[in-house]
Design a protein that fits this description.
A hairpin with a 4-residue loop joins strand 1 and strand 2 (34-35). Strands 1-2 form a two-stranded antiparallel ribbon. The chain has a domain at 28-59. The chain has helices spanning 2-11, 24-27, 37-53, and strands at 28-29, 34-35. It is mostly helical. The longest helix has 17 residues, at 37-53.
């Protein structure tokens, strides 16, 4: 799959030192049950990068 090959090429060298990531509570507002602005922006950035690689999303 060409998309997987492109993603692997982009991230393969960083796999041993990949960031740990964040918890649910760090990405979502616990009062409103909505994602925080920083997480929404990150999601939109990654979604755009994947779309450029050919991943299709439902509207």
């Amino acid at each position: 799959n060409e998309i997987v090959k492109k993603l692997l090429a982009k991230y393969e060298d960083n796999i041993p030192n990949a960031p740990k990531g964040k918890t649910y509570e760090q990405c979502w507002d616990m009062k409103t049950k909505q994602p925080i602005r920083e997480y929404r922006q990150f999601y939109q950035k990654i979604k755009a990068e994947l779309a450029e690689l050919g991943v299709r999303f439902k509207d």
